[in-house]
Amino acid sequence: PHDPSRRFVGTITKWDDDAGFGFISSWDAYKVYGKDVFVHKAQIGLIGGSSAMYAKRKRSEIRNGDTVSYTVDLAENPGKPRAYNVEKLAAP
């Protein structure tokens, strides 16, 4: 079941740096939501931070294949999971 406080770990896929968005692939999240989770650059590296300031940056430090942890919210677009509180993790 959906739990907005649960943190998942996944891999960035289909990242488009010009558009500033992509998806996170995670088997655990897929079992809950049935699809990869959408991620926007404004949600990366913002634990209690100000997303407006970050969103003004032109480029993100995220790349395809990066490992991240994140929470998922369905409130903004029901049925379409969206990543929040995204943190890049060190490569294993």
Number of helices: 2
Measured by DSSP, the beta-strand proportion falls in 25-35%
Spans where pLDDT lies below 50 across 5 or more residues: 47-51
Helix content: 10-25%
**Mean pLDDT level:** 84
SSE pattern:
EEHEHEE
Structural class: mainly beta
**Number of β-strand runs:** 5
Please tell me what the overall shape is.
globular
How much is the radius of gyration in Å? Answer: 12 Å
Would you write up a description of this structure?
The protein has helices spanning 27-33, 51-55; strands spanning 8-16, 21-25, 37-40, 67-73, 82-88. By secondary structure, it is mainly beta. The chain has a 5-stranded antiparallel beta sheet.
Helix and strand arrangement:
Layout: E1 8-16, E2 21-25, H1 27-33, E3 37-40, H2 51-55, E4 67-73, E5 82-88
Antiparallel strand pairs: 1-2, 1-4, 2-3, 4-5
